[in-house]
Amino acid sequence: MRLFTIAACIVAADQISKYMVTICMQTGQSIVLIRDFLHITYVLNPGAAFGMLPYQTLFFVIITLLVIGFIIYYYRTVDNKYNLLRVALSLQLGGAIGNLIDRIIRDGYVVDFIDFKIWPPVFNLADSALVIGIGLFVIAFWSNPELRNERS
Questions:
Q1: By the 8 A CB rule, do 127 and 49 touch?
Q2: pLDDT above 90: percentage of residues in the chain
Q3: CA pair distance 144, 82, nearest whole angstrom
Q4: Which of 21, 10, 24, 19 is nearest to 122 (CA)?
Q5: pLDDT for 103-121, tens place per residue?
Q6: By the 8 A CB rule, do 134 and 102 touch?
Q7: For position 105, what pLDDT does the model report?
Q8: I need a labelling partner for 5 at 20 to 30 A (CA). Which of 11, 36, 42, 76 fits?
Q9: Which residues of 110-122 are buried (b: 16+ CB within 10 A; e: fewer)?
């Protein structure tokens, strides 16, 4: 059940933050939080990371559904003792669902708004959960020889 609890929290935070941005800002508008470092910038992204493959909504929906299915399946095969790996998968699931919801309800677009001026892409909480989840997955997998040997 931890899988769905963590994922639901990620989806809720992601969707609430995106909703707040869409009702309080105009597309393209930017609010300075820390000058030359962190802005809230409302962007509609029709693609993946860095805007790659724009307007390929059906492709992204299908891939995301496959990824969600794989995460759920893999989570069920991971022993309870691998807590970090299970948390990583939960974060990935929440991030995938958060962006999938956007693609479905916003005609293929994803709302992005976190804008670190020292790094080009604007992103959102779902993207953050995905990246953190992938990082934790790599750490959990490669720091545990027992787990690596199980999967070989």
A1: yes
A2: 84
A3: 9
A4: 21
A5: 999 999 999 999 999 988 9
A6: no
A7: 97
A8: 42
A9: bbbbbbeeeeeeb
CA dihedral (98, 102, 47, 123) positive or negative: negative
Q: Does residue 152 or residue 35 have the better pLDDT?
A: 35
Q: What is the mean pLDDT of the chain?
A: 94
Q: Is 112 among the catalytic positions?
A: yes
Q: How is the chain split into domains, by residue range?
A: 2-151
Residue 112 CB contacts under 8 Å (≥ 6 apart), including other chains: 41, 43, 44, 45, 121, 122, 123, 124, 127
**127 carries an active-site annotation:** yes
Alpha-carbon distance of 126 to 132, in angstroms, equals: 10
Alpha helices in the chain (DSSP H): 2-24, 57-77, 83-105, 125-142, 145-151
b/e map 7-22, b = 16+ CB within 10 Å? beebbebbbebbeebe
Structure tokens at 29: 């508008």
- In the set 14, 102, 112, 115, the catalytic residue is 112
How many residues make up the chain in this entry?
A: 152
For tokens 């545990």, what's the residue?
144
Residues sharing a CB contact under 8 Å with residue 134, sequence separation 6 or more, in sequence order: 88, 92
Catalytic pick from 14, 102, 115, 127?
A: 127
